[in-house]
Amino acid sequence: MADNILTYLSNLEQNNNREWFHAHKAEYQDAVAQFEGLIEGLMLELGKDDSRILQFKPGELTFKIMRDTRFSHDKSPYNPAFRCHISPGGKLPVPVGDFLFISPGGRSFLGGGLFADMFKDATKMVRDYISTHTEEFTDILEEPQFKESFKVEGSSLKNVPKGYDPGNPMADYLKFKSWYIEDHFEDALLDDTDAFIEYAVKRFRMLRPFNQYLNEALRGFQMPVR
Q: Structure pTM?
């Protein structure tokens, strides 16, 4: 059961300050341990499809709960959500993999695709691939089970960028700067860990053709050096 995760995140959201956070460090550590246990369960199942993800420890695939407030109007120090990205590259955004976001109040989701829109090279590579592999992308999006279950989202331009055919059947997706799916689920699904893992793995496998398509598009992409 992941009740400790949701309870902790809900309390943190209502007490988003450093004093409360440090006073409840034990609850934080318990929730983190529970989250990493959930990740491990997912990895063991997903690793049957791609053993490369098993090279990582669950904690290496999670994101910090502390927020960078330097350029934000919201100065609350913590993001009341637990996040992880499971892929052969670990938690790096490329190659794209399986994303889990847990936040109380029905805001949790399973995800896939490219969430980062700040890498211009990655955006161009995906646009180029969509423009030249349009039929393959159409087949993925129009597959009945996929179409019924998911919707591709992403930050988008108003018009098809220069150099791409506005008449392309996938023209709307050529406007995108990122391509991802958020498959939301209710808090109650986390009440039974085994049932949740079974559900999540099934949904992640349904997302697999979408992720594989993007990873083909991003073949050879190098993360910018800081």
A: 0.95
